[in-house]
Amino acid sequence: MSGVMGTQVYTDGGDYFGEIEEANLSENKIDGWRIKVSGNMMSLISGARGVIIPHQFVKAISDIFIINKAALPNPDSDIEEVPEEV
Description:
By secondary structure, the chain is mostly beta strands. The chain has one domain: PRC-barrel domain (SH3 type barrels, Roll). The chain has no helices and seven strands. The protein has strands at about 10, 15-25, 30-35, 50-55, 60, 65, 80. Strands 5-6-1-2-3-4-7 form a seven-stranded mixed sheet, with no helix packed on it. A hairpin with a 3-residue loop joins β5 (about 60) and β6. The chain is globular and about 35 Å long. The relative contact order is 0.24. Residues about 75-80 have low confidence and may be disordered.
């Protein structure tokens, strides 16, 4: 698990999204990934420091992560935004 921390995350459209911060586990399985969002993508998540992307939106894991573009936050999304820590 520690080998993927800090791995770069891209959308399937080729846009740089951010870096993996941690994995969320549920019943010994990966449930989702906490991603620290890059500066140019922050406008999509209204100032939050990062998002939690459900594992089902991950298309590939290797030297980089590739996530489905549908995983990008929008008002109807089930993706949880991670509030900025104070």
